[in-house]
Structure formats: structure tokens, C-alpha cells
Amino acid sequence: MLAKTYGSAxxxxxxxxxxxxxxxxxGSKFFLVGLPDNAVKESxxxxxxxxxxxxxxxxxxxxxxxxxxxxxxxxxxxxxxxxALGLLAASSQLSNEQLHEYVVMGELSLDGTIKxxxxxxxxxxxxxxxxxxxxxxxxxxxxxxAIVNEVEVYGAHHLLEVCDFLDGRQPLQRFTANRETLFLxxxxxxxxxxxxxxxxxxxxxxxxxxxxxxxxxxxxxPPGSGKTMLAKRIPSILPPMSLEEAIETTKIHSVAxxxxxxxSLILNRPFRSPHHTISDxxxxxxxxxxxxxxxxxxxxxxxxxxxxxEFKRTVLEVMRQPMEDRVVTISRARITVEYPAGFMLVAAMxxxxxxxxxxxxxxxxxxxxxxxxxxNRISGPLFDRIDLHVEVVPVPFKDLSDVQPGEPSAVIRKRxxxxxxxxxxxxxxNTKVFSNAQMTRNDLNRFCKLDxxxxxxxxxxxxxxxxxxxxxxxxxxxARTIADLEKSGDIQPSHLAEAIQYRxxxxxxxxx
Length: 512
Prior knowledge:
Layout: E1 2-11, E2 14-25, E3 30-33, H1 38-41, H2 43-53, E4 62-68, H3 80-90, E5 102-104, E6 107-108, E7 114-115, H4 120-129, E8 134-138, H5 142-145, E9 152-156, H6 159-166, E10 173-175, H7 179-186, H8 201-213, E11 217-220, H9 227-232, H10 243-255, E12 271-272, H11 280-284, E13 285-286, E14 291-292, H12 294-297, E15 302-305, H13 313-317, H14 320-325, E16 327-331, E17 336-340, E18 344-349, H15 370-375, H16 380-383, E19 388-391, H17 397-400, H18 409-426, H19 441-447, H20 452-464, H21 471-485, H22 493-500
Parallel strand pairs: 3-4, 5-8, 8-9, 11-18, 11-19, 12-15, 15-18
Antiparallel strand pairs: 1-2, 2-4, 6-7, 9-10, 13-14, 16-17
């Protein structure tokens, strides 16, 4: 007898429908075909034990299981449940009437318990888009899948629960979610706030500009000056995510298996801070079965690289192309996947190996040239993609002891959102540019015209401060963002002057 069940395979951050055909006929052998990996092949033993322990029988006849499309690699243990249901239906131990209406995924324990899986959200999305009535997933994954509208989502703890449901004897628990209400209630909740930061008003201003224009920023200063503390608060001033951005971000974390049990939808922009010992594949993604890396997990949010010169140079260099393209493509012999990587880079570093170059009270003990050598650990092309260079100095005692709270994140965020709305209107006809930081040369010529006074100011700055040629475009982009924050249609000399001061590491004399 032939029975069909439906599962799903994760491809990048999306999913594909997999048809599992089970045929029970004359003979005694077991065949599992359709490009399964070892975890799928081992399902035979898990299913055999699970069926026996719940009072069901594994067919003692010739069993052929085909997983179609046969040219797509099937990975992981999440196919246990649909294969087990197919075996029961093909051997007349389960009704075959409703199997075609549901996408089913879950890993089986030997006692029939259903364990959680990765990628429940993209699986529910592909089930809806393929016109299935619903999905049946492990109970822990059901709240995540329920974010998808127009498809029934059921959670199950045990194999027998699914059998009773498909036989019409017992209903499964159905999950629903009002995603709009959930979204609106939680988008303004943050663990960190800029009101907790004492002093550092010039650094807060620089980070506000970076958030308003989507600019990458590097903070350079001695240990204990507050670089990490400031970086952790950047998501609280970025514009709220749209519902589409929240779903896309959740899909990435779901595929990576990083969603917490209490989380069905990621509502705040992610903040990822990998250690400097991270590998190339850990940062951009990869592995034998490609998984998203830190730059994809930071999509729509912030990637914070603390102690930037301590990262291996090869690790930083593989990040250059994704920073420009906002996607990362991972190619293997049998598969090529693409992960989104639209993140805001925030980096921090000490000014020298000892950490006290340019410190107001402590002397630097580094040898001559050590500061330049330390800075040269980071390549020019990577610096070329960082718009703001901000020097952080220790907070004086009078600011530390001030009991008055600083300006809260909500107030700063309001200004950032207003500036982003101006940019949204400016780039409404351009599908590849979403903020000032992404402007091309043609965009600069069109939206960033300078008057004669501004041109002379920029010329003087380039000559007097020995700024590099790569600083030219970056200064204009930052000046455009400063003008947007002040709701100015044109770039004024004051905007340009402020932007120039954020290029300290481009000065030829820095570190000498």
C-alpha cells in the first residue's frame, strides 16, 4: 500500500516542501532513498523503537521510502515524525484521509515523545504558500510557527497524540498569535538605555548620527572609557523594526536554532557581539551543512566587534563583500545558499597595545611606531567601509558622580526615526539604497550638492589634516545625515565641519 506525507527542508532561510512516499509491499527489505544524510538514515532505528514502545507495529515487509525531490539533500532528524506516520498509514494502522492536508515535522524519542526542531517559522510559511491546511510541529515550536497567518498550527508532545488527531479521535492543541498586537506591545522594550550613560555627550551625538544614517562606526579609546557600554545601547535608538523585518530576522534565528522557548517573534533589533577568536565560518556562515554566521544573525541590527585589531585579519577581510552587498553567498560542492547580512557595524579598539595612547592622565609605554603597527592590523579597505571614527576619553569624576539621568533613548530615537523618514522619501524609487550610508557616487551628486563655502572647507580639511581620498565620500554622507537630523534640505558648512571631525583615523599624523 502507498501513503504520502509531507515534510519540509530548510534551504538558506527559506523552506521547501518534501514529499515522503512510503510503499509497503511484498518482501522483507528496507530502503530509504532521496538523498538522505546519516541522521535521516538513522531514523529507521528510532522509528522502529518508538513504534514498538507505543503499541504500534513496524511493517515486517518490503518498505521503500522515497523523499522527493530526490536531488535535494535531506538533513537532520526532523523527518522522523512524517516517516513514522507514512509507515503507519501504508500499513493500515492510521487513517490516510487527512495526511495530505498537513506539513508534519518532528524528531522522535524512543518512547514516542516529539522533540523540538529548527526552522519552524519558515516551514509554516512554505506550508501556507503551498496551500496546505496546516502544520503539525513539536509543542515547543508551535508558538513560533503560529506567527504565520492563514494556516492552522498544531503542537504535539507525543506520536500517539498525532495519530489520534489524524484518526479523528482526539483534537490537538491549536496555536494562534495576534502578531500585530504582540509586535506593538514589545518593540519599545530594551534592557539598556542611554539615560544610564554619564557624560560622553560627544560620543552619544556620534552614535545618534550613525543610527540616523545607518553608518558604520568605530570607537577608539583606553580601557574602561565606556566603549562597550555605549555600543550595547545602540539598538535602543535605532528605528523600530517593521513586522516584515521582524519575521525575516526571526527566520534566520529559527534556522540557526537560537530562538528561546519563550520567544515566538524577535521584536527588537539584534545585537551580536562575537569573541575575537571567532573563525571565518563563524562570522560569515558556513560549515559542512551551511548555517548562518554572526553577520546574518545581526541582520537588521548591530554587529559589535570589540577589540577589533585582535580579530584575525582573514576573518575581517571575508566581511568586506557582505558589508557592501548586504547578503552573503555560501557555496559548497552540492549546495549554494544565500543569507541576508544587512547589519550596522560597530567596532571598538584600544589606541595602542598598552591601551593608553592619548590618555589624559596615564602615559603610553608602547615603543615608537607601535601605535601605527597596531592600527595597521586592520586593512585600509575595511576602514574604507567605516564612516565615523570616534575617539572616546575616560569620563571625568564630576560626570560620574552626577545623579541626574542623561537623555533617554526614546528621545534620541524619535530624532533618528524622523531622519530615517526623510531618507525613506529620498530613496523611495531606489530599491537598493535604504539609508545615507548606502549612497552611490550618482546619489552623492544628486542629493549632496555643496555650495562654494562648503567645497572650500572640505578642500582645506583634506589638505590641512592630511585626510585620505577615501574619506571624501564618507564625510559627505555623514554631513548629509547631520543635515537630515536638523531637517535641512541642503548641506551647510556647519554640517560638513562636524562630519570632518569624525575622520580622526584617516589623518596621516594619527598615531605618530
